Amino acid sequence: MSINTKRHDVDLYDTTLRDGNQALGISLSLKDKLMIAQKLDEIGMNCIEGGWPNPTNAVDTEFYTRVNKMNLKAKIAAFGSTKRPGNRVEDDPFMLALISTGAPVATIFGKSWDLHVEKVINTSLDENLSMINDSVRFLKKHFDEVVYDAEHFFDGYKANPEYALKTLLAAKDAGADCVVLCDTNGGLLPDEAVEIFRVVKSKLNDTKLGVHLHNDSGCAEASSCLCVIEGAVHVQGTMNGLGERCGNANLCTIIPNLQIKRGFNLVTPEQMKMLTSASLYVAELANTTPNVRHPYVGEAAFSHKAGAHADGVRKARESFEHINPESVGNNRQFVVSDQAGASTILEKLSNIRSGLDKKDPIVKKVLAKIKDMEAAGYQFEAADASFELIVREVLGEFKEPFVVKAFRVIEEKRSGGETYSEATIQVVEGGELEHTAAEGDGPVNALDNALRKALVKFFPSIKEVKLDDYKVRVLDGKDGTAAKVRVLIESSDKTSQWGTVGVSTDVIEASWIALVDSLMYKIMKDAIINK
User: Fold this and answer.
1) Which one of 105, 200, 205, 440 has the fewest CB atoms closer than 10 angstroms to its CB?
2) Are 376 and 309 in contact (CB under 8 A)?
3) What tens digit of pLDDT does each residue of 332-347 get?
4) SS3 state at 173
5) Alpha carbons 263 and 284: distance in angstroms, whole number
6) Domain architecture of the chain: domains with CATH
7) Which residues does 267 contact at the CB level (< 8 Å), separation at least 6?
8) CA quadruple 223, 229, 234, 239: dihedral positive or negative?
9) pLDDT tens digits for 101-139?
């Protein structure tokens, strides 16, 4: 197979918030979506698809109202479908919902496979062409850019190539800015992807083409990269490959494949170095366990256990590593080495105090503490506040402002069927003991209320703290109800937001650790500001 060697501009189009959110077990809150959108913008995505706004989807509809106020560099795309059969495009509620978002980009899908046209949406082949053309033409009046996703295109082409190409031409003739070839069933193999893409390119040679591929055959990244090399100027995917069934093409693999291996200029070197931390960040907010064997960004991607491998890498890193792990923000691990994770942690340290290096005794102390905590199940990618508390304590810049002497939680099931939660707590601040109790909606909320009640007279500003999100992850299910859990809490005040983490075999204790860190971080932050 001959390979195109020309390099062209390529738009990175992320659909984590829409297609990724359709993955089994994923349910992103509005807060999750906004935070992930911010991270996607930071790492250089050109376009971020927020979801499917419609009258029955309040989260996705509100997302567009909120994201428009964030001043992101990335363009925001509103997603939907062509108008329904028999509807006037001007009256179609889904068309109108797209317009109401105020997004600069509209992305709509339409049917390319005659099977879907006749047996799924139950209309004629000609009517389907009109639906595509009318919808794109209508949206072009209201959006800066219209992207047309040709759903099931590759399967449609294999079944009826003449009709599948007609659907693309219907979108092109209506003014679509980009026509995207989709492998919605995910069964495409790389040789088929190249062969069909070349035909389409020859037929629509003056049209911008993109690809959107699912991973049911394990080839989505390879096929996406080959199509870009062949001339696609737009590639869609998700962070960590999240998506329906086996997932979507993984942008964490596609981006370094194309940039590092094939010379495409997709993101800055600094953004490339953020890729691993961004992958972990999305995994944390999506409440999924990171795949340690993900190419480039997985914890095991550059880990070396076999003696011959470790010896080879120490002598010449390229002997068992295909790229420098630091180029994607990952790090080399020798399984028995005490240096595992040093580069990543040092990078996070530099945001708190610049000029540190691995030889500094303070750095070694922080690294040792962080490594011990990570071995116990802690994960700090989305718990920036807990990490900063540890670092500033080691640096001598933070001392715990209060001490919790004891806490107790009462959980009672009453005769009427309702549950009752109460927490009591003893806190010492400046030698003064404060003993309080509070009720709550469940044990964690009761602890939160009791802690705030005990501290507010010493630290009035904690009234500003809001608990925005609370996630629990079982770290290893083999121990059943005795399994260790990690709790991630997202908090905010009037000016910023932060994450804290707690780990324990007791979910209440893990929650307590994260709650205490959240309020301690607020107190520390205010002290630094007022210093």
Assistant:
1) 205
2) no
3) 876 533 444 455 566 6
4) helix
5) 31
6) 11-285 (3.20.20.70), 338-389+464-531 (3.30.160.340), 402-458 (3.30.160.740)
7) 12, 43, 44, 255, 259
8) positive
9) 999 999 999 999 999 999 999 999 999 999 999 999 999
